[in-house]
Amino acid sequence: MDEMKIKLSSGLMKGLVSKILSKIIFKQTGYHIDIQLNEIVIKMDGDKANIHADLDGTMDKEEVVLLAKSLDF
User: How far apart are CA 64 and CA 71, in angstroms?
Assistant: First the structure.
């Protein structure tokens, strides 16, 4: 089996992916979450892709309360 690994370690690429993820989350959920991507590793093996992401996120307390209410917490 062939295997391909992609590991983002440069600050520029991590920053770019972090902004893209934040925008995708906002478009899908309407919540503003500031994402800081620490590391992402994508391993593709045949028809499967395994993604491991280490990230931190911050959002306003009011949005956390709204999110919890929408999830019935």
Answer: 11
pLDDT tens digits, one per residue of 34-61: 999 888 888 888 888 888 889 999 999 9
Pairing state between β 48-58 and 3-8: unpaired
What's the rounded Cα separation, in Å, for the pair 49 and 63?
32
- Within 8 A by CB and 6+ apart from 24, the residues are none
3-8 sheet: strands from edge to edge: 3-8, 34-45, 48-58
Q: Tell me the pTM.
A: 0.71
Q: Which residues 6+ apart lie within 8 Å of 72 measured at CB?
A: none
Q: How far apart are CA 47 and CA 60, in angstroms?
A: 39
